[in-house]
Amino acid sequence: MSDVTIIGAGVAGLWAARSCLARGLRPRLIDRTGAPGPHGCSWWAGGMLAPECEGALAEPLIVAHGRKAAALWRQVTELHEQGTLVLAPERDRAELDRFAARTEGHVTCDPDAITALEPDLGGRHRRGLFFTDEAHLDPRQALADLVEALATSGVTVETGMAEPSGLDGPVIDCRGLAARRDLAGLRGVRGEMIVLRTDEITLTRPIRLLHPRHPLYVVPRAGGRFMLGATQIETGARGGVTARSALELLSAAYALDPRFAEAEILEMGADLRPAFADNVPRVVRRGRILHLNGLFRHGFLMAPALAEQAAEFLSTGKTGDLFHED
Ligand SMILES: Cc1cc2nc3c(=O)[nH]c(=O)nc-3n(C[C@H](O)[C@H](O)[C@H](O)COP(=O)(O)OP(=O)(O)OC[C@H]3O[C@@H](n4cnc5c(N)ncnc54)[C@H](O)[C@@H]3O)c2cc1C
């Protein structure tokens, strides 16, 4: 017997289940494709928990909640707490000043400091910004770890289609972009990524390379793998990675370190990030249904906070600052 039904087992739905359990509510978790995989947007994420860097463009609400995300993820999966290094090609140095002016929590790095942080990039970049308190995780491992933790509490992902209106009792709708018809203004923002493998380069932390048109990040993963991400294209069209995007991502990686030219391409992938007009994730309350959606480029950063507010509402009736009444 369950207290609440959660639809969707992406990062939002899995965190919703975890937060409900923590508050003594027994969830039933349903996903149309089963456990997390390439069918969900969460599969394609970089796994950066970078509230300060995201703050260059994101609302203060996201920075404030995002700062608490690492402590919550640490309880679930292996977290790499090495900060973020932000660089810019020499001709785009002004980008670094603009980024520094729009963000907090960084120190400026000279060439020696860059070499000390990332010896493999030493000598290639003259100035950088080091965001000391940021973290990253492997998103696919993190999703698997969430599934496993839920299973130890007796909650498994049921495979099946569900619609909130077709269910009785409280529902947390975490269908991502599939909830578009029920949520006015929800749109898809395409993100494309490439995974490379090389033994020639070692990086310890995510590197962001600023560029006026094609900003890029590289997230190191185990086994000599590097995730290059991510485009941000205002289109609702699904599909694979375009040749243009592949060129941009690979050129930016080459600008960061020319040895990426010799790397093996393991994977290219794309999905649509669910986003509202202001790109702020929210809990939309409609009677007994709570929609957790619009996670945009902040799914891993914001899912713990959204889930906690949904679970708190179900157990106490209190609404948080991410709530919207419909
Ligand atoms: C290239 C890329 C890079 C990114 N990098 C980052 C990053 O570094 N950090 C970060 O925080 N975020 C990042 N994001 C954003 C993040 O991935 C998304 O915000 C997040 O995955 C959205 O999660 P979700 O749970 O809402 O949706 P999803 O992961 O899509 O999950 C929705 C689930 O609902 C299920 N479903 C749909 N309809 C039904 C139905 N009718 N019945 C049952 N189940 C249903 C689907 O099968 C799916 O599993 C990135 C995104 C992309 C594309």
Automatic annotation (TrEMBL):
It comes from Sedimentitalea xiamensis. InterPro entries: FAD-dep_OxRdtase (IPR006076), FAD/NAD-bd_sf (IPR036188). It comes from the Bacteria. This is FAD-dependent oxidoreductase. Residues 3-312 form the FAD dependent oxidoreductase domain. Keywords: Oxidoreductase. Pfam families: DAO.
